[in-house]
Amino acid sequence: MRLQYFYYFTSLNQKATFISQVQNSCYYYINYTVSVMNEDFLHYLWKYKKFNFSDLKTTNEEEIVLKKIGNHNQSNAGPDFFNAQLMINDQKWAGNVEIHIKSSDWYAHHHETDPLYDNVILHVVWDDDIEIFRKDNTAIPALQLKEYVDNTIITQYKELVQSNTKNWIQCKNQLPQVSGFVIANWQERLYLERLEEKSIIIKEMLVDSSNDWEAVLFKLLAKNFGLNVNKGAFLSLVNSFDFSIVRKCSNNLGQLESLFFGQAGLLKEETIDHPYSLQLKNEFDFLKNKYKFDNQGVIPFQFFRLRPPNFPTIRLSQLANLYFKRKQLFNEIINRSELDDFYDLFAIETSDFWKNHYTFEKESPYKRKSLTKSFIHLLLINTVIPIKFLYTKNLGKNPENEVLTLMSQLPPEKNTIIKRFSDLGVAIEDSVHSQAMIQLKNKYCDKKACLKCAIGNYLLDR
């Protein structure tokens, strides 16, 4: 039953007492209502007009004609929809729309004291339990949405969002019903969304490096050379010296390797028993004295549970050889677009010492250690393509087609998320698909953001 209040007071104390009473008296009701209804769902209903809007009326029986629902405010402070347009009893209104489960949430959220809500022209609620007034004591028209929503969509919403919490994803049982065309389109959008998120990190790195693209590329590559186990250690290593030093040392492979191994703390006295390691130690002592290196912030490198080809010693030598061989690596990456060209670009091996070593201390059978295709794929997915994407956008061009074409040539990654979606019948044929499903699981499924997901929308629209 709707509570009847007349919101007109002779003092601020009376107003404060009234609001406090409303908040306290409705506490249990608020918690109960939230358990069966979600404000995001109301946003969804309003945004996509999932209700009968042909004969709308306010709770005071005034006719409403929707002209424009407004622009959804998904992140900023203020009302939920900006710049809405509507008619109420033939009076044209232009302004904002605020959405709540209950009208009294207006006071629970303290909107009555926030000037951002002064231009609200319609209060859309599920339950209209109290009349809401502006600062000038004029009532804000309310639309009680539950009177205009079909029960079918409510049932579908509950089945989707309030399904078994033990399910890996909310729509696990319904996913096989979703059109492959819908999933394929959503995968492409998800991947581009993932690229945009990676672009944010690259932009921050550009600011820190005075907009030096080559320096940012170096740091991203180094991080990904470390893979999951040592990515933090590799990033801390390359952050311990300026990229200008890499440029100065790029004509001397010995100096590059001594810089990397020395700053990584791997040139220990007990390992200096070979001409190669002795040369590195001498080179590093010279560089350390010249540039006043400090490696106290470098994270220790891990060897435990790594396959020997992924030992940080091997990856550091490969990274040094890459920058010795490719003096203008950033320009070469930007100017290449074919997969075979990138295979050629990253055709890198270790120095000779590492062909029969995995560590400084122990000799091993001879084996050339080059970057494998699968490793190059990881560099393309996590470094090359994201930085090409952002750089091309900054030039005012659209990089999407080039990026999608290159990514579609790469095989899908293999991990638990990909396997479980595959087991549910989702087609995952290339890296666009696998990156998309990682984005879907982490940013939508884990957060139960079904109403923002194209798959969730499809299931609700059936």
What would you call the shape?
A: elongated
Reported for the largest beta sheet, the result is:
7 strands, mixed
Indicate the multimeric state.
single chain
Approximate helicity band:
40-55%
Number of strands: 7
Number of discrete domains: 2
Contiguous uncertain segments of 5+ residues: 1-12, 21-35
Q: On the 0-100 scale, what is the average pLDDT? A: 91
Strand-pairing-aware structural class: alpha/beta
- Radius of gyration (CA) equals 30 Å
- Strand fraction: 5-15%
> How far is it from the N-terminal to the C-terminal residue, by CA?
33 Å
Number of helices: 19
- The ordered H/E elements are HHHEEEEEHEEHHHHHHHHHHHHHHH
Describe the 3D structure.
- This protein folds into 2 domains: 12-149, no CATH class; 191-407, no CATH class.
- Mean pLDDT is 91; it is low at 1-12 and 21-35.
- The protein is of the alpha/beta class and 462 residues long.
- Strands 1, 2, 3, 4, 5, 6 and 7 form a 7-stranded mixed sheet that branches.
- The chain has helices at 12-25, 27-36, 39-47, 105-108, 151-161, 180-208, 213-225, 227-238, 243-249, 253-263, 275-291, 312-325, 329-334, 339-345, 373-394, 400-407, 416-423, 431-445, 454-461, and strands spanning 56-57, 63-68, 71-72, 81-88, 91-102, 120-127, 142-144.
